[in-house]
Amino acid sequence: MKKLLCALALTASPAFACDTALLLTIDVSNSIDVAEYRLQTDGMADAVLDAEVSDALIQGQVAVAVIQWSGVGRQEVSIPWRQIRSLADVQDFAVDARAMPRAFVQSDTAPGDAIMFSLAQFADAPDCERQVIDISGDGTPNAGSDSKAASREAERQGVTINGIAIESMGVAITTFFSRAIITRDGFVITARTHREYPQAIREKILREVSRVFG
User: Fold this and answer.
1) What does the pLDDT look like over 164-188, one tens digit per residue?
2) What is the Cα 86 distance to its own chain's centre?
3) What is the pLDDT of residues 21-74, one digit of tens each?
4) What is the C-alpha to C-alpha distance for residues 109 and 105, in angstroms, rounded to an integer?
5) Domains defined for the chain, CATH in brackets
6) 114 burial class (0-12, 13-18, 19+ CB within 10 angstroms)?
7) CA atoms of 159 and 116, how far apart (whole Å)
8) For the whole model, what pTM was predicted?
């Protein structure tokens, strides 16, 4: 009996202390001005401080990191991986998000490269049950690798990509995100302007950490 219990313990599925490794990425390409950049960083901070969101982050012991991206070779880990286990962790993350300096200016838009860079960052993430990339942007690619191919690579690696399509440029960014950015198990939320971004990211993070997809 003792040997049987040991064998079962060895073959049992691992228990994850972390529900989701959530990589938040923000577009800082040429189409994003100073005020729009601040709307993204403040929106991210306000979203995690929302009572419902912060509770979900803590309950899931969610790991989060932040990447800024724009053109080819222009991706930066602005906030490295950290696990959210308490309200103090949430508050610290919000402070760091607000204080985060802009990484790039006057640069092209290469979301395919951003996806590939993001995938590589999970090697340093805590051991979580799910891996999710959260992409936001307001333009279609004008540089870099194929976005759809990068999205399919994410699927092969078991990583979900969700998106916020910011329609401020008056083009069909939501359609592009649906066809070429998100994975088959992902979703897109549309912000009609940058000013709708704070509410959109709150909704998106809540869906991501609450296991609601569609």
Assistant:
1) 998 876 668 899 999 999 999 999 9
2) 20
3) 999 999 999 888 898 899 889 999 999 999 999 999 999 999 999 999 999 999
4) 11
5) 24-209 (3.40.50.410)
6) buried
7) 11
8) 0.88
